[in-house]
Fold this sequence. Notes:
This protein has helices spanning 3-13, 53-63, 86-96, 115-118, 125-128; strands spanning 26-31, 36-40, 69-76, 100-105, 109-114. By secondary structure, it is α+β, with helices and mostly antiparallel strands. The termini are far apart. Helix 2 packs parallel to helix 3. Strand 4 (100-105) and strand 5 (109-114) form a beta hairpin. The site of tetrahydrodeoxyuridine has 15 residues, from helix 2.
Amino acid sequence: xxxxxxxxxxxxxxxALAPYSGFKVGAALETLDGRIYTGCxxxxxxxxxxxxxxxxxxxxxxxxxxxxxxxxxxxxNAAIITSPCGACRQLLWEYCGDIVVxxxxxxxxxxxxxxxxxxxxxxxxxxxxGC
Length: 131
Ligand code: THU
């Protein structure tokens, strides 16, 4: 576990806007050169426009020109481990590649995975070369 990255994600989680689900998530994405971009989930009244913490962190980094990443930490307070949703797995794979994914609950649970293991047989830019 990367303690600094998890601490950053936990701090980001404090800013979560999750009045509908009550499920607060924080994410911290580390670049190859050691910078950290954070995000929290942001929900809205129509529900469907909700954005996950992972994507907020990713958009922040990409929009500032970052293109190379090393790892991401995702923090919740859930009793069981929270793994990124399918949409976030897809986007993290396309823009970050096979990064390390640290899953942490404030209740004391930790897991570490490679993104490739969380998204087997992905659809990505290589898939588009086949046609
Ligand atoms: N959520 C995240 O932010 N990241 C995840 O990895 C799982 C789910 C958010 C979306 C929504 O605001 C709330 O958690 C409940 O699904």
